[in-house]
Amino acid sequence: MRNRTDLHPTGARRLVRSMVAMLALTTLVGCKPLDDAMASVFGRSMRDSRSFDPYEHPMPPAEGSVAFAAGNWPSADGEVNLGQPEGVAIPYFTQFDLGTPGVGGEVVQGLVNPTDPMSAESLERGEELYSRFCVVCHGPDGVGANAYIADKHPLLPAYNLSGAQVSAYSDQYIYAMIRVGRGLMPEYGGRITHFDRWHIVNYVRQLQVQAGTRSAEAPAPAPDADGGDQ
Question: What structural domains does the chain harbor?
Fold first, then answer.
């Protein structure tokens, strides 16, 4: 004898379907009244939440703070950009503008050295930056075989910054390689500022003079040639 509470299989299926339909209806519309009530109290609901882009910082910088990239936009040599105008922007270029590898000619018009290539201050700054960024791959004297990681990178000994080939490169080309990179060399445009790149160029020229691949005479800097960076 069956218990009075037992249901016919057909009735049980109908009950399950009814419960599923009710649950689905509650799921679809149950949050809406709650959202409407929250919006009336707080002015917004979870359905109107703000989304953020990847790496976006929702908080503004603190007053008087300096942005990470500010040092790459100085208006003059030795300055840090704290919000002042960026000065004269230099031409934009990419690795495609460097031309045929190994030629090292002019890159773009209007790109000139705003520093004094022969000044002690520029060479001192260039040596400091060279020791910080370049020496590990190019060696303290610009000879690839003397690089600190020459034993770990078989191509470095074949490439000399103080050699005759690089000595024949234009100042623009060396500057451009620092900024946008070339071949195995990564770009340092985001880490070395516009003026500091020129200081490194001047110091590399000094290494070439010491190696005997370049004359000690250097061209005078272009008049009124300063600028920020793109």
Answer: 9-48 (no CATH), 86-211 (1.10.760.10)
